[in-house]
Amino acid sequence: MSDQELNSYNEHNTVPSEVVNICIAQGVSWLAAWRIHLGLTQTDVAPKIDCNKAAYRAVETSEAPPQDELIKLAEIFDTNAGTLIDLYYGED
Q: pLDDT tens, 16-45?
């Protein structure tokens, strides 16, 4: 996704610009960018979704994280679950 597409997407969804900037600048996934934005480590987040760091890393780097995990992460990241689901699965 180009910088222009990411910026356009951000204008129409509730993704903080800081998260978009981290995603672009660091080349990380949406979940990693959101976590970094909040100052959390993978070790911080993993137990909050009842898994170990390696399992969380797999979720964070997946192109299609399980929707049930996205719902849990939305609460941790203080956002709407639909926003995270849309980032990975679109609005279909």
A: 999 999 999 999 999 999 999 999 999 999
Both structure tokens of 29? 């996934």
| Other C-beta atoms lying within 10 Å of the C-beta of residue 32 | 19
- H-helix or E-strand spanning residue 52: none
Q: Tell me: pLDDT of 68 over 80.
A: yes
Residues 6+ apart with CB under 8 A from 51: 59
Contact 56, 73 (CB under 8 A): no
Q: Which domain holds residue 61?
A: 3-89
**Using CA atoms, how far apart are residues 22 and 52, in angstroms rounded to an integer?**
24
Cβ-based neighbour number of residue 62 at 10 Å: 13
